[in-house]
Each structure stands twice: as structure tokens, then as C-alpha cells.
Write a structure and sequence with these properties.
In the N-terminal section; belongs to the zinc metallo-hydrolase group 3 family. By secondary structure, this protein is an alpha/beta fold. It contains 13 helices and 21 strands. The radius of gyration is 24 Å and the shape is elongated.
């Protein structure tokens, strides 16, 4: 029998642990994930979210260790996406008298589109409440954090914010709380999660944080990862920082290379940043996954991207990274396109165009070199990058 874990009196974690998940929509989840659901025992038994469909058995087993799952009165669906709602059809069969609470109108529309008309749905909006006994749950819609239907549920009695995808991490652990895992580890996972899932919606996150500012809570129970109980101020502060789209004086040099000329240029650009006193990181796309790089992009002001020309275009690895980054829409960055070529600088030119589509600040043209780079060319590149970056670095001081 799988065990539920009591997180506060009469409030239990009853989710599923996905130890072997390694890829979530192109985002590498090297530490697995969890699909968190929470059971509240009151006059009306309430389940906050379900789980991904393959983990319904775990969810039901954990609930059955506490109460008869058929006695559930309410199921709150904070988010339509199937890693949260996939267990709803099974739970609706097991608990046929349960009413499913979801956001109106987007949650109702989304759940109906996914699962048909057979679910007993009730839509709620920001400010709506649900009395379940000595507890009253209230709802705050958080559209586009990170779907239009997204909302959070607030339990004032227990001082818990059931935060949906906000403040989550893809992280599988036998531990359930931040202080059991350790703040450095969980912040690394929270940063990668924000960068790869939430970053495009920074303005929406800021709006959500303002909407939550009037609520008093000492625990954040997200839909993925561990539960925040000892470091709530820290994760709130990080979300304020990340959503502000204010990067640090930090540089990333991201590249792929064929015959090492673009690689030599990448190393020289990195050295130029170091000479200026700007922390820098060199990332070869052959050995660094794009989702790990995005966790670094979240904090970096300067993004240098390099590619040689291959078959009249940039390297496929570079194209993949740029496509992925453009979708996550980091704002306020300074771009440095560079690369080498033989017949024509089509590779670095396409890098330039891709960074331009990201709305990065750019030089007049990419930094390029034909054929094999030499010492004189590298020295010239070094100086040109310093001259270009100095324009922005001085303003940032």
C-alpha cells in the first residue's frame, strides 16, 4: 500500500512520483518529476488536482489508505493540462458524486474538450469561494501561468497556497519538503523549471504575484516537485526577480563548430568577457542540452551564439537552440552573433536573423571569419567584442 504524507493536520500529499521521467516537451528532467495532488479532510472531502494518467493507481492507493475514494465530495482542477487532469475520468468514476471545480470559462472549456461532457463541472472565478466545513477555499485565476485556464487555490485555515505550476520543479524525491532536500538543490530545479516553462509569461507572473500579495500563507504546495514550507520568502523573491526580466551582468557563449574555427571564436569571445570582469560561461551545443542552457539564459544579459555555415545554413544544433529560445522569449538581452564560413557567411547571418527575431539588441553585423581563424583575426575579434559590450556594460554599472 502506497502511503499518503500529512503536510498539515488533515491535509495530505497523495500524488505520484515519476522517478524515470527524463524528457518533458523537450525539457530534460534528469531528476524525474512528481504529479502532486492533495487531499483535505473536512466535512466535505476535497481533492486538489489529480495526476498524469499512468499514475492514477498511485493516487487512488494513497487516498484509499486514508478514506474511501468514493467519498470524495469535490475535486479542484487548477489546470487542464493532462499531467494534472489526466486522472479526472478515473476519479469521476470512483467518486461519481464528486463535483469538479475548475476555472471559468477556460477550465470548463478545456476539460470538456479533453474528456467530453460526462464530467460534473462547476466553474469559478477569482474571488469565488467554496465552503467545505471549517475551511473555506478561495480561488485566484492566474491566466497564462502558464495556460489560459490556470488558477490557484488558497486554504486560509491551513495557510496553504495550492499553487498549480507556479513555484514548481520537475524533481522526484522521497522527501516532500524544501528543508528536507536543501535550498540550493531545489532552487536549481525551480530555476530550470521557470526558465523552460514559465519565462514567456513574466508579465502574467507579475500580475499573479500582485493578486496573491494580499494572502497570508506559510506553505506553498505546487503541482510538481517539493512543497515549500521553510523557504517561502526565498522562492517568492526569486519569482519576483525572474518575472522582472532584469538580467545580470553575465554572459553565455553558445556554439557548435565543425573544424574548430567557430569554437576558437567562441573561446576568444569568452576571454573578452572575462577580461572585462563579466562572468561568462562557454557552452558547446554538442554536450549541453538546450533546456539546461535556458536555465542560464534566465539570468544572462549577454547571449553570444555562434555557428559555421553548413549546407548554406547554420548548424542544426544551433537552429534548434535558437528556435527553442525564441519560444521562451527572454527579453532585454544583448546578442552577439558570430561564426565562420567557407564560401558565404550564411550560417552566422542566419544566427543574426534569429537573434533579431528574439528582439535582442545587436551589432550592425555578425562577427565572422572565413576559413581557418588565425591569431590576428582572434585578436581583432577580441577587441571588437570588448568595444561592443562596453557600450552596455558601462550603462549597467
Amino acid at each position: 500500500m502506497l502511503k499518503a504524507i500529512e503536510i498539515k493536520p488533515d491535509v495530505f500529499w497523495v500524488g505520484g512520483i515519476d522517478w524515470n521521467e527524463r524528457n518533458f516537451h523537450g525539457y530534460t528532467t534528469e531528476r524525474g518529476s512528481t504529479y502532486n495532488a492533495y487531499l483535505i479532510l473536512d466535512e466535505k472531502i476535497t481533492l486538489i488536482d489529480t495526476c498524469k494518467k499512468p499514475f492514477v493507481g498511485e493516487l487512488v492507493d494513497r487516498i484509499a489508505g486514508i478514506i474511501d475514494p468514493a467519498s470524495i465530495d469535490y475535486i479542484v482542477s487548477n489546470h487542464v493540462e493532462m499531467d494534472h487532469s489526466g486522472g479526472l475520468p478515473a476519479l469521476a468514476e470512483i467518486a461519481p458524486n464528486a463535483t469538479i471545480i475548475t476555472g471559468a470559462p477556460k477550465g470548463v472549456q478545456g476539460l470538456t474538450a479533453h474528456y467530453g461532457d460526462g464530467l460534473s463541472l462547476k466553474g469559478v472565478k477569482t474571488g469565488d469561494t467554496l465552503g467545505i466545513g471549517k475551511r473555506t477555499l478561495s480561488f485566484v485565476q492566474t491566466p497564462m501561468v502558464h495556460w489560459p485556464d490556470s488558477m490557484v487555490t488558497y486554504d486560509e485555515y491551513d495557510q496553504i497556497l495550492f499553487s498549480n505550476d507556479a513555484f514548481g520543479q520537475h524533481y522526484a524525491s522521497s522527501k516532500r519538503f524544501d528543508d528536507e532536500v536543501g535550498l540550493p538543490e531545489v532552487l536549481v530545479q525551480a530555476q530550470k523549471y521557470y526558465a523552460n516553462i514559465v519565462m514567456p509569461y513574466g508579465k502574467n507572473v507579475e500580475a499573479a504575484l500582485k493578486a496573491l500579495a494580499g494572502l497570508s500563507f506559510d506553505m506553498i504546495a505546487p503541482a510538481h516537485g517539493i512543497i515549500w514550507r521553510s523557504h517561502v520568502p526565498e522562492i517568492l523573491a526569486m519569482y519576483q526577480k525572474w518575472s522582472s526580466s532584469t538580467p545580470e551582468e553575465y554572459a553565455l557563449v553558445v556554439y557548435d563548430s565543425m573544424w574548430h574555427t567557430t569554437e576558437s571564436m567562441a573561446v576568444e569571445i569568452t576571454e573578452a568577457f572575462i577580461e572585462m570582469g563579466i562572468p561568462a560561461r562557454l557552452l558547446d551545443l554538442k554536450v549541453n542540452h538546450i533546456s539546461d542552457i535556458m536555465a542560464e539564459v534566465l539570468n544572462a544579459r549577454y547571449i553570444a551564439v555562434g555557428s559555421p555555415t553548413l549546407n548554406k545554413t547554420m548548424m542544426p544544433t544551433v537552429a534548434s537552440f535558437l528556435c527553442y529560445m525564441r519560444g521562451l522569449a527572454p527579453a532585454g538581452r544583448v546578442g552577439i552573433p558570430f561564426g565562420s564560413y567557407g564560401w558565404a557567411p550564411m550560417g552566422p547571418n542566419e544566427v543574426y536573423q534569429a537573434l533579431e527575431s528574439c528582439k535582442f539588441t545587436l551589432p550592425e553585423a555578425p562577427f565572422t571569419h572565413q576559413w581557418v581563424e588565425d591569431e590576428a583575426g582572434l585578436n581583432s575579434l577580441h577587441d571588437a567584442v570588448i568595444d561592443y559590450v562596453s557600450l552596455f556594460h558601462e550603462k549597467a554599472q
